[in-house]
Amino acid sequence: MSSPTPLQSFLGGLSLPVPVHALMLLNGNVFGISGYVHRATKGSFEALMGVTGLILGGMAVGKLEGAGPLRTDMPLPQVMLSGIFVGLGSKLANGCTSGHMIAGIARFSLRSIVATATFFTTGVITARLLHADLPAVGPADLTLGENGTKFLALQALPFAVAVGLYNFAPDLGKRGKSPSAIKKTDETSPHPESPKVHNITSGNAPHSFLRGLAYLTTSFGFAIALRLSNLTEQIRVVSFLLLPKHKAFDSSLFFLAIGAMPMAAGLYWFARGDESPRLGGKWAIPKRGKVDGKLLAGAAIFGVGWGMAAGPGLVNFGRALSTHTDLIQVGTWLGAVVLGGLLA
């Protein structure tokens, strides 16, 4: 049984955009979990560091909490099919919930708005078809939870590393246009996680190790914020997709959105700095793209997989490694995501 956690989810929502924005300021890149997975399979060092950070964050959660998150019990073939749909759909749509819903909508991307509406629609339909028998939601928990304070404190570590990288790393980003120049070049509508990016500035030679460290630490911080928000709990996400009139509806993710959306937009539009990416390289802001059939099909397929077995697989995989629980289910789902991406 799921119970709404308004305070935890709101604070987690406030926390999620911070590592997303930090990665943009440090490396000039868009944060996107599915993009990390797809690029890591092709040997990208930076994407691999992002994947590692999310897994390490999950392991830290496991060490703090022990038992795995609340989830729905599904047969393994359904878990595998869900992963394939998520991998295939996110690759076709060039984004998932982190890339489109958090990073993309913050920049008022039409593609991200349409993609989010599409995968929410198919996610709701799928959840109501497969999970309508979930038990009634429990009473709301208005506290920070047993470990909420620890998760808030733990986020200070990756935040401190990001601040240190920005202020004390070798200044590799003096030349080139600032992120504010993005608006002037009419490239403000991003295509999250797309490999086709618009390199706005020539920048300086990037520092590979420090850029990798930025991916690692921001992903770790994102993982901890996900747990604080309770987005790691599969059953809670599915319960949200059942919509308010259903007895099992869990409103936690509504409070997450209230915290995340204004914060993400505020950081992007009002805290973009006046430099090239701090750790060198180029601004890799995705091109303005049109809403096409590939985007709609990918988002729809992703939504089906999301509604079948929602939850961030990399974070939960790290938690499973740490606690030695649910390894088969989470590992199968994650492997299927990789397979789905390769099929796209």
Automatic annotation (TrEMBL):
Residues 183-196 have a biased composition (Basic and acidic residues). It holds the Pfam family DUF6691. Keywords: Cell inner membrane, Cell membrane, Membrane, Transmembrane, Transmembrane helix, Transport. It comes from the Eukaryota. Residues 176-197 are annotated as: Disordered. One of its GO terms (cellular component) is plasma membrane. This is Uncharacterized protein. It comes from Crucibulum laeve. It is found in: Cell inner membrane. The lineage of its organism: Eukaryota, Fungi, Dikarya, Basidiomycota, Agaricomycotina. InterPro entries: DUF6691, Sulf_transp_TsuA/YedE. Signal peptide: none annotated. It is a multi-pass membrane protein. Its main location: membrane. The chain crosses the membrane at residues 20-38, 45-64, 76-96, 108-131, 213-232, 252-271, 295-315.
